[in-house]
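MOLECULE: protein
FOLLOWS: sequence and fold
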Amino acid sequence: MLPFVIKDEDVKQSMCIEQFFPIPVGIIPIDKALNEKIVEYIKSKQFSFLKNPGGGGNSISSDSYILDKDELSDIKKVLTDSVNEYFKEIVNPDKDTKLYITNSWINLNKNGESHHAHKHPNSLVSAVLYIDTCEGDTISILRPQETLFNDFNFNNNHKTLWNTPEYTIQAMINRLVMFPSSLPHHVNPRPNTCRGERISLSFNTWFKGTLGSEGSADQLHLN
C-alpha cells in the first residue's frame, strides 16, 4: 500500500516555455537636431544614386562613405557611441574591444519601391537611421532559419512568437535600428499614400581591440 495518495490535481502543471537564444535588435531614438543636420547636408550636396542591383526598385547613394565627411563628424560619433552601447549590452566584452563604422550610405525609396531580402557581409553589427519616413514605412526582420523544426511546413495560419517568419518594425524619423549583420531583413513596397521619399542612412561596423583570453594561443590584438 502506498504511503500517500496521488490526486489528479497534484500532477497537473502548467507548461513553461522559455525564450532561449533570442536575437537582439536594438532600437534607440536619435536627437532630432542631428537628424535635421543630415537632412540639410543631403539637400546641400548633389548626391548621385544608383538603382539597387538586388532588386526592389529602391536607390542607394554611389558614395558609400557618407559618414566620413567632416561635416558629419559629430553625427558619426553619436552613431558610433550608440552601436557600441548595443554591442556592450549584448556581448559585454571584458577587453578593450570596440566597434567602429566602416562604410555608410543613403537609401531612397519612392512609393511602390521595396528593398530585397539581404544580409550585410564583412560587418559585425549593421544599423539604419531613419531620416524621412511616413507612417506606413517599415523594416522586416526575417527568421535566420527557414523554419523552427527543420524543413517541415505545418501550414498553420496562427502565428506565434516562435513560428512567425518575420517581425515588422515601424520606420520612424530619428529612430536608429541596430542588429547583427548576419540577420536577413527586407523592406516591403512603400505605400502609395506616402508623401515625399523614404530616406535612411545605413552603416556597417568592424571591431578593434583584444580578442581571446589573456595568454591563450588564440589571443589577437586588432588596431
